[in-house]
Amino acid sequence: MPGKPGSAPGLPSRYIATMLATVGQRIAAAFRATAPDPFVIAVLLTAFTFVLALVTTDTTPVQLIDDWADPSNGIWKFLGFSMQMCLILVTGHALAAAGPVALVLRKLADLPQTGAQAAALVAFVAASLGTLNWGLGLIAGALMARDVGRSLSRRNIPYHYPVLVAAGYVGLMVWHGGFSGTAPLKVSTAAQIADVLPPDVHLDPIPITRTILSPMNLVITGGMVVLVPVIFAMLMPKSGESAPSTPAPGDGADETDRTPIIPRILEETPIVNLLLAAMIAVWAWRYYFPAEGASGIRTLTPNSVNLTMLMLGLLLHRSPRSFLSAVEDGARGCAGIIIQFPLYAGIMGMMHASGLTAELASLLGRGSPTTLPLTTCVSAGVVNLFVPSGGGQWGVQGPIVIQSALDAGVPMPKMVMALAYGDELTNMLQPFWALPLLAITGAKARDIVGYTAIAMAFGFVWTLGWLLVF
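The structure assignment produced for this chain is given below.
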């Protein structure tokens, strides 16, 4: 319990919390006054990249346009990967919206008794689940922020809604150190490595026991899961309630009543879900518990994560209708991804073909064996602002990181994770992946980015410090 007014034990922490909340409000106000919509940011980044490549490389304007529109390496390059990301989002949403999971989320929403406790709870849930799967962490964080806000409003407890929504986004601040982290998964098999490395560069597969489950990552990522909720508790203003947007309840009953009897029976029976789940379960058993060799959990890929999430979602929903309704809700959050992901793929195409990515990564990724992981982390954070995709960024920066590690004699797992940390931390400035969260909560990107920027600053201090220790 906090100390009474004037008591010594409570003064320092209360002063720090008050100061941090004040700073957070001022930074948030500055972003609200200046930050445009994420789609506008994507277009402006496209134009900025075009000009930057034109000025700093020998590429001509026509070549840049061709690189941007190239069907293999430009705007359409990551259509397959974007589908994987949409599926992670949709299956994560379906699992979080399943009856048992949703019930747990609602029960949790009624636990906080203050705005600070609410912010800490939302951040902890988002970060914890984000280490399991980034889509689950993002959607559960959004649902928690929305439901906790409703619960606080119902109980007349003061709070500031943008802080809750920002707290719901922090799963994207720790995800790359978790089990759906792209970079560590992309080096876990020879086939995945061959996708990005030139033929003359050899790299043995790196199991996740040396990346995601390494002592370094357990300290860095596990520490942030604990640290970030404390930060958001301090960011919550002591007063200034802001009621969350409450979407109107859907009118699904009438539509159900008009459905013919045979389709209704098929759509509402759990047998259909169980049939498909049973097929996936056979695969899952052989994948995670093989008769010979290592468990698939050590070499998880986006595809295996998606198939596992699909199975769990089917099992936890009562019927195909319930499952598809959750999928449709999740798919609405994909709208921004569908239209903006090609723009960022085009940015990547221009940066890669012109050599701008290599120049930027090399410029920021130089250093001694001691400082190279730090500069790699920072450079990955900068590149992520232009390429907000762990897979896309690994495709263009991964070969540079690997070659730098080989030249400097730095352990490869450490360099892979250094790139992963930089990529995830600047998600707190890049609103691209916040689009589904914003759709669920009804908030604006400009309302939350001031608070997430503060969390990012603390995250960089924490991460860079431990990269020096290990």
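Interim note for the steering committee: The first helix runs from residue 11 to 34. DSSP finds 24 helices and no strands in the chain.
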